[in-house]
Amino acid sequence: MKSAVFVGFVLFALVPLINAYCWQELLKFGATHCQDDVDKTWHAVGSSWTNSRCDQCRCSSVKSCCSGLPSVTVADDCTVEFDYNACTYEVFNKKDRNIKCNYSAVGK
């Protein structure tokens, strides 16, 4: 019974992580660099960077990254366009880009 309660508690504690916008990866002992999972570039311990998907990362004893762009929800007649060079986004009507749309965003 105690085991079942413990497992249930652990699974319950993980629920908020399902939609998390940040993640971490422990480095191997003595590592001097982190590798970006998206761009496959290497970054020295103590550095920070933004990758081509706009994730903002930092390399220390762990590699930690957070999404630089939110998850955007729009109405059916609207669309979201991400600019991965500027790490920005625009929400507009599918038929007329000049008509801006209301939206909700989760994350950054």
Key words describing this protein structure:
108 residues; secreted; 1 helix; N-terminal domain of TfIIb; 2 domains; signal; four-stranded antiparallel sheet; PSP94; Complement Module, domain 1; mainly beta; Beta-microseminoprotein
Uncertain residue segments: 5-20
Q: Mean of residue pLDDT?
A: 86
What's the CATH class label of the largest domain? Answer: Mainly Beta
Gap from first CA to last CA: 41 Å
> What oligomeric state do the depicted chains represent?
single chain
Rg over alpha carbons: 19 Å
CATH architecture tag of the largest domain: Ribbon
Number of domains: 2
Tell me how many strands there are.
10
Keywords: Disulfide bond, Secreted, Signal
Subcellular location: Secreted
Family: Belongs to the beta-microseminoprotein family.
Protein name: Beta-microseminoprotein
